[in-house]
Design brief:
Number of strands: 0
Number of helices: 10
Shape: globular
Helix content: 55-70%
Mean pLDDT: 91
Largest sheet: none
Strand content: under 5%
Low-confidence stretches: none
Distance between the termini: 40 Å
Oligomer: single chain
């Protein structure tokens, strides 16, 4: 991480801001607004874009993907502009945690892939683009969203080193480990060969 040079109270406020922004469950908001039902009772029950896609509404899934990614990216950009690089990493990490454990949903949130990628894009666009490309390649080859997410997360540390962004590794590793933790059931299904393909309706 970069040196923590900002006022600790400011960093606490940034952390709270990032968490609250990340906690907004856009998938649930969008599906309810469109009359698609309670997302938590559809497919996997996850609140992210992949599960929104299982409703059959591709525009809703795309909107969820963009907004969930935007939570992390906007948190980083605002914190960097108003405070500095240390605040940007804290804001991004807390937005990611907010998505995973949102206070509004009893701390039962999504798996964080879109927010993870949005955070990376804002912290370092080359790293973020490379991680997104890793997701796309894995998704195209395997047609399994969770596998693509795991590949993108695992590759992110390599991209940070390659593009000289070692100051991101600590935060990046925390997010990567959490992505794997949140995908532990998917990993079990991948090993069993029962993980559903992208776009399969719930």
């Amino acid at each position: 991480m970069p040196a923590m040079t900002s006022d600790p109270l400011i960093l606490i406020l940034v952390a709270v801001f990032g968490y609250l922004l990340g906690s907004v469950p856009f998938g649930i908001v969008i599906t309810r607004a469109l009359g698609l039902g309670d997302l938590r009772k559809i497919g996997s029950g996850n609140i992210g874009a992949t599960n929104v896609l299982r409703t059959g509404n591709k525009p809703a899934a795309a909107a969820t993907l963009i907004l969930d990614a935007g939570k992390g990216g906007i948190a980083v950009l605002i914190a960097r502009a108003l405070v500095g690089g240390d605040a940007a990493q804290i804001a991004g990490l807390m937005a990611f945690l907010g998505h995973l454990y949102p206070v509004w949903l009893g701390f039962k949130g999504g798996k964080g892939v879109a927010t993870f990628l949005g955070t990376l894009l804002a912290l370092s666009w080359p790293v973020g683009l490379a991680a997104c490309a890793s997701w796309l390649v894995a998704a195209a080859l395997g047609r399994i969203s969770s596998l693509a997410a795991l590949v993108a997360a695992a590759s992110s540390t390599f991209w940070m080193v390659l593009f000289g962004q070692s100051h991101m590794i600590f935060v990046g590793m925390i997010m990567t480990l959490l992505v794997y933790w949140r995908h532990r059931e998917n990993i079990a299904r991948l090993r069993a060969g029962t993980e559903p393909k992208i776009g399969k309706k719930g």
